[in-house]
């Protein structure tokens, strides 16, 4: 288990279906760390209760995300203010860019943690 910052969601922020996850790098910049599996109803509700809309310049503005591995279909995402931390279950497989290779399971929202409290992008989990 480890934690990541929720940076975007698929579906409406009031009913997210999955989350795109970030971590800060050593320079304090957000880096794409991976994507969560489809969220169950309880997690959708818990995450929706915590998500503020995106109100700052965001590093992913203008970026597109594939709907699935190797797919040309694009996933419609909504950027959110990257302040919500979630506990995630991950395996040790990383891709060439250092992101979690497989989808991660979002376990719970960690209201008591801030993005600065997490391991940096690329550090051991």
Q: Briefly, what is this?
A:
The protein has 125 residues and is mainly beta. Helices cover 8% and strands 39% of the residues. It has a 5-stranded antiparallel sheet with strand order 3-2-1-6-7. Strands 4-5 form a two-stranded antiparallel sheet.
Count of DSSP-assigned helices: 1
Structural class based on helices, strands and sheet pairing: mainly beta
N-to-C SSE series? EEEHEEEE
Morphology call: globular
Radius of gyration: 13 Å
The proportion of strand residues reads 35-45%
Largest sheet: 5 strands, antiparallel
The strands making up the biggest β-sheet line up spatially as 3-2-1-6-7
Q: Got a strand count? A: 7
Can you tell me about this structure?
It is globular and about 30 Å long. The longest helix is centred in the middle third of the chain and has 10 residues, at 41-50. The protein has one helix at 41-50; strands at 2-12, 15-24, 30-35, 65-66, 74-75, 77-89, 105-109. Strand 4 (65-66) and strand 5 form a beta hairpin. The chain has one helix and seven strands. The model has no long low-confidence stretch (mean pLDDT 85). Strands 3-2-1-6-7 form a five-stranded antiparallel beta sheet. Strands 4-5 form a two-stranded antiparallel sheet. It has 125 residues and is mainly β.
């Amino acid at each position: 288990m480890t934690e990541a910052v929720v940076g975007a969601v698929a579906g409406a922020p009031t009913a997210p279906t999955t989350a795109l996850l970030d971590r800060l790098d050593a320079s304090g910049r957000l880096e794409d760390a991976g994507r969560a599996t489809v969220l169950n109803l309880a997690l959708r509700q818990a995450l929706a209760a915590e998500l503020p809309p995106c109100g700052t310049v965001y590093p992913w503005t203008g970026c597109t995300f594939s709907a699935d591995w190797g797919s040309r279909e694009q996933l419609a995402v909504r950027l959110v203010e990257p302040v919500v931390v979630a506990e995630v279950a991950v395996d040790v497989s990383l891709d060439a860019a250092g992101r979690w290779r497989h989808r991660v399971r979002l376990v719970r929202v960690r209201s008591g943690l801030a993005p600065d409290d997490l391991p940096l992008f690329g550090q051991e989990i």
